[in-house]
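Problem 12. The chain below contains 129 residues. Write out its predicted structure in token notation.
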Amino acid sequence: MVKKVWIEIVFWLHLPIVLLWFGLFLVPKSLWGGVVAFHFWYIVSIMFVQFLWGLTFWPMIHRVDIICPVTTLMQSLRGYPRTSEKNYGHSFIAEFCERIGVSLNYKGVNVALLVTLVLVVVRYFLFAW
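Solution.
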């Protein structure tokens, strides 16, 4: 029972991260002048941390991947070993959508995240100066 509560807590820790990731697109510069720069550095920081964490999986998966440390913690609490694809092939967004009845696959979520990354980078270099 306690373990399930911890799994849910860690699961929901993802929500503010994801809401900021997408939600900052909706904040106008007139309301917050630094939103574009903050959004850029927020996403770069998250991607950097996930890249570094993904490098620690190199000996197991033999590729460079972006892996969320929070997801790894959650999957570990669920009983999956670090070597399991459930650790590096899992998406909070896909699982969240599945919980609310919307089916998304992991690769589709990755494409959406890469598109938003490109949009944030373009927006930063065009509008943050």
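Discussion. Helices lie at 2-23, 35-55, 58-61, 69-77, 85-88, 92-99, 106-127. Students who got a different answer should revisit the alignment rule from Section 12.3.
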